[in-house]
Structures are given as structure tokens and as C-alpha cells.
């Protein structure tokens, strides 16, 4: 179970429950086709918006992002251990992409966090969301630094 599901720093999203996983975490990590299929279906079942972010003119490979973050213990552990720069190095963004860590964290949270809860932590039941995802008191979290485009969802 995810650490957030066990702490008082999380909120239950009223009326929403996690769907059952359609594949194992191992299959999702091993096969990008399984990942993309289960991720699209997950967003459809959760009735959440799904678009692939574009960073530095290239679509963000959400499969690689998911694999790298779960390899390090998941979103909350990567946040707690300040490993976003390490994750970002995998993508070899251009030197002009100065807000890569922020952008990766933001997109992971919006597109992969709940997916991670189901597929990595095997969470079932009500949807949980951490109370604080981007601390406003931290001056390094300035949303105006995140210049991101989106590409339409591929079918």
C-alpha cells in the first residue's frame, strides 16, 4: 500500500474509486504497449483528461518516466529523496530546459500518480490524493517556469 494511503496527509476523493488493474506492474514495465493501453484505459475509467506532454519539442515518454520513478520507489519517495533531477537526466533534455525537474514532477503527478497507486502499489478502493503536491512555500516551485505544450491523444 502506498505510504500516502496510510497517512493523515492524504484526502479521499469523494465518490471515486480506483479501477482494478488490467495487467501486472511487471508487464507494464516490461512492455510499452501494455503500459500505453492500460494507461489510456485507466484515464478513461477514471474520467480524467489524458494528453501527452511535449517538452523541448519532443513528446514525453510516460512509460520511461513511470519505469524510472517506480524503480526509485514511487512518486512520494522520489519527492522525499529529491530525485527528480536524477530521473530527468534519463531524458537528456537540452540545456535550455531549465525547469525539467518541476515539469516531470507535475506531469507525473497529473498523469501517472493514481496509475502508480493501482499498478505499482496495488491500491484498491477510494482514490487518495496527497494534501500537498507542490509546496507553495518553496520558491523553487514557480509554475511560470514550466513552458510545456501538449500533443493530442493518440489512439
UniProtKB/TrEMBL annotation:
Transmembrane segments: none
Pfam families given in the database record: ARID
Record's keyword annotation contains NADP: no
GO molecular function: DNA binding
SUPFAM superfamilies xref list: ARID-like
Segments forming domain ARID: 29-120
InterPro entries attached to this UniProt entry: ARID_dom, ARID_dom_sf, ARID_HMGB9-like
The protein's name in its UniProt record: ARID domain-containing protein
Species name: Castanea mollissima
Amino acid at each position: 500500500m502506498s505510504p500516502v494511503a496510510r497517512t493523515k496527509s492524504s484526502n479521499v476523493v469523494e465518490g471515486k474509486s480506483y479501477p482494478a488493474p488490467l495487467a501486472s506492474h511487471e508487464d507494464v514495465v516490461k512492455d510499452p504497449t501494455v503500459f500505453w493501453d492500460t494507461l489510456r484505459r485507466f484515464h478513461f475509467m477514471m474520467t480524467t483528461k489524458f494528453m501527452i506532454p511535449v517538452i523541448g519539442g519532443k513528446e514525453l515518454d510516460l512509460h520511461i518516466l513511470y519505469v524510472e520513478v517506480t524503480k526509485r520507489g514511487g512518486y512520494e519517495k522520489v519527492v522525499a529523496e529529491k530525485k527528480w533531477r536524477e530521473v530527468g537526466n534519463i531524458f537528456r533534455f537540452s540545456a535550455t530546459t531549465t525547469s525539467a525537474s518541476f515539469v516531470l514532477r507535475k506531469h507525473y503527478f497529473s498523469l501517472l500518480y493514481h496509475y502508480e497507486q493501482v499498478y505499482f502499489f496495488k491500491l484498491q478502493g477510494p482514490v487518495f490524493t496527497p494534501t500537498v503536491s507542490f509546496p507553495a512555500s518553496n520558491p523553487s516551485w514557480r509554475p511560470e517556469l514550466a513552458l510545456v505544450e501538449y500533443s493530442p491523444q493518440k489512439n
